[in-house]
Design brief:
single chain; 186 residues; mainly alpha; Four Helix Bundle (Hemerythrin (Met), subunit A); 6 helices; globular
Length: 186
């Protein structure tokens, strides 16, 4: 167990804490949940940086890092959909979660056929993640009352959903020759 892997495990362990804080009946609970989520999001960047810088990449880290990210984001989106309960948050949340399922399945299948490198993380995915994390930090930190910050959070989440679709198309396009070849062989 190295520092990058410990940070990834910490990210998973922070999930129940930000859920608990989100539901506490105090005026500061949203901001506290958002702060814990922001710390978890920062560890996502930090663990990757340290793994590369210290040359401490491991198979465990390569497995758990994307799982931790997806768990963290999916839980945050579910919490927000529940309290906001509107189209403007539910649609992008559904797009983001569905994309994560599709791309994860695609990456797994591509790895099985030895073509995982064709669906490596792209810049589209990095921009999507940045917009998504910022949107989630803003939305988790504010009660579901329409105001500047909530509207900004919705806007960033919609941008993130758009980038999510673009990055999914990018991955599917890269994988298409392999998908097509598999369909032609049947």
């Amino acid at each position: 167990m190295n520092i990058p892997n410990l940070l990834t495990v910490l990210r998973v362990l922070l999930i129940p804490i930000f859920i608990l804080l989100f539901y506490m009946p105090f005026h500061w609970s949203y901001m506290a949940a958002s702060t814990v989520f922001a710390i978890a999001a920062a560890t996502d960047w930090l663990d990757g940086y340290l793994a590369r810088r210290l040359q401490q990449s491991t198979p465990f880290g390569a497995f758990l890092d994307p799982v931790a990210d997806k768990l963290m984001v999916a839980v945050a989106l579910v919490l927000l959909v529940q309290v906001h309960a509107n189209f403007w948050l539910t649609l992008p949340a559904a797009i983001i979660i569905c994309r994560e399922i599709v791309v994860s399945a695609l990456r797994e299948w591509m790895a099985e056929i030895g073509a995982r490198a064709h669906v490596a993380v792209s810049n589209w995915g990095k921009w999507k993640t940045a917009a998504q994390m910022l949107a989630l930090v803003i939305l988790l930190g504010n009660p579901p009352v329409v105001g500047f910050w909530v509207v900004l959070g919705y806007g960033l989440l919609l941008i993130s959903a758009g980038l999510t679709l673009v990055s999914m198309v990018h991955y599917l396009t890269a994988a298409w020759p392999h998908l097509r070849d598999g369909a032609e062989q049947k």
